[in-house]
Specification:
- The chain has 72 residues and is α+β, with helices and mostly antiparallel strands.
- The protein has a single domain, classed as 2-Layer Sandwich (Alpha-Beta Plaits), CATH 3.30.70.2700.
- 25% of the residues lie in helices and 44% in strands.
- The protein has a 3-stranded antiparallel β-sheet with strand order 1-3-2, with helices on one face.
């Protein structure tokens, strides 16, 4: 099992609530890992940067791990 965190950038609308952002980032990380044939052992959210036209760029990282239940 790799101990190297993989970083991903995800763009989301600026008007999303905190809960909507968390859910969207979580779903995005799971989808990204699955597309790469990996499972997610954990994830962490970095900074967001405001962009023009009502968007934020979020930096999110995930730790690949064995198949199992994804932590909430």
């Amino acid at each position: 099992v790799s101990k190297i965190w993989k970083s991903v950038e995800i763009f989301l609308p600026s008007d999303m609530s905190k809960d909507e952002v968390r859910t969207a980032l979580r779903d995005g990380i799971i989808r990204t890992a699955n597309e790469g044939g990996e499972f997610v052992c954990g994830f962490r959210v970095g900074a967001s940067v405001a962009h023009d036209n009502g968007w934020h760029r979020w930096t999110v990282s995930y730790l690949p791990g064995p198949p199992g239940v994804f932590p909430d």
